[in-house]
Amino acid sequence: MSSLALHLGPLKVDGHKIFRSGVRWLCAPGEQVRANQIIGYCNISLQSAGLRLSGPPPFADEQELQVAFAPRVAGRVSINASMVRGGYLSMHSVETWNPDDVVAHLETDADESAEAGRVRLMMLAGRRMTGLADLQQAGLLPSWHGRSRGWWCEEGETPVSLLSLGVCDAAGIVTGENGAFLETFEAVPQAAQMVYVPDHPVAFTTQLLLDQLSRTPAQAKAIASDLRAFLGETTTAPSADDWMFAGSFLQVMQRSPITDTYTVFSGGGLTQLRPAEVILMSLIAEPQSILRHKKLGYHLNILRHYQAAAGPAIRAWLGSAFEPVKRSLDDIKRDFENLIDTVARTTGAKLAIVNRMSTQGHEDISSYAPFDAPMSNTLTNIAAKETNLMLHDIAETRDIAIIDVDAIAADIGGAEHLPDSVHQSGIMQALLRAEIQQVLREVRQPIVAGAAA
């Protein structure tokens, strides 16, 4: 058993000085911690090191910047109390980033190396839905974000990016229990970036994503003008909830997350990343009925609890300006194929799709004779089986990855680990992360081979 000093290590943003807050800990003194387990974090800010001639500074639209850290080997941690500043000094960046700062000591039996004493770093960035969503930087990735992301890489490595656009079943695999990618960081040690765009107030369906990819600035302006005109003319006075919904809705509708590019930094400095190489979606997010704007033709899918959270004026707008459009299984299949082909042409990304649990284990139907065809319109378990088969049909002609929730639930027990067919246990999420890691590994191999050539 030996004592290992854990140093912060290098971190660089070209043309800027990095300042950090005091450290906040996610473990207790004397706790036995795992290799790659996040044990603490701090907020950071950037200050230009010289005169900037043009253009916005890096991360200008991401109000939350944080760095979390983890030991590379397991052991019993002893916290450096001097790194804890307390009060506002644990929220505001007051210390210059120093790679030699020792954040903790680790009593370990592991073989020590030059690298073992340098913690692994995960950088976190959050783009707020509004600048007013300020939670005083309390906690990991605080505030209400329209996009959050975490990345980790060593100097000289380029992360492979995964963009999660799913509802709860896909989001939890990536963001983890506290929404800051901690479990994914521990499960995927290779250089990677995880990006999460939430399903509020609009859930991403194939049709909505296709709309975004083809939407022109003039069409985006027309959407905003239409909503503004309705709220200005309706006899139902818009409430605060209405205006909140309207602002967040327009944020979502006026940009396509699929074509987003990313700035990241590590010990080697700034790197510009292309759009995500993997897009994670959920089959549950594909409804049998979707809203279509009567005049402008774009599509919407808003989950019931977000419809309820909207104000009365927005609900009136949804009821008068939109019409429901039924979608058959063939329609959904065609939309998926169109999206896969469009994304392949636009960014080259691969879709990874979480399928559905096909039975809850407590169906007690003894005869299907009373149900009209197609039974999938009324029976959830039949609909799940049919959509899962549809996904496999698509995989026959398209390069997609199927994240097989159905098979994993059958193997470990759906009643215990997926009781409502949507929300997974921690054990199940860990198994699904292993599936995600395999997809990232398969995507990374040709990228690395191409770079070497």
Secondary structure: elements and pairs:
Elements: E1 2-7, E2 16-20, E3 24-25, E4 32-33, E5 40-48, E6 64-70, E7 75-79, E8 95-96, E9 102-108, E10 120-128, E11 145-152, E12 160-164, H1 168-175, H2 182-187, E13 192-196, H3 206-214, H4 217-233, H5 240-253, E14 262-266, E15 269-273, E16 278-282, E17 289-293, E18 299-300, H6 304-309, H7 312-321, E19 322-326, H8 329-346, E20 350-354, H9 380-397, E21 401-403, H10 405-412, H11 414-417, H12 426-452
Parallel strand pairs: 12-13, 12-16, 16-20, 20-21
Antiparallel strand pairs: 1-9, 2-5, 2-8, 3-5, 4-7, 5-6, 6-10, 7-9, 10-11, 11-13, 14-15, 17-18, 17-19
Principal-axis shape equals globular
Rg is 24 Å
User: How much helicity do the residues have?
Assistant: 25-40%
- Fraction of residues in β-strands: 15-25%
- Average pLDDT score: 90
Ends distance: 44 Å
The main pleated sheet reads as: 12 strands, mixed
Class of secondary structure makeup: alpha+beta
* Tally of helical runs: 12
How many β-strand runs? 21
Low-confidence stretches: none
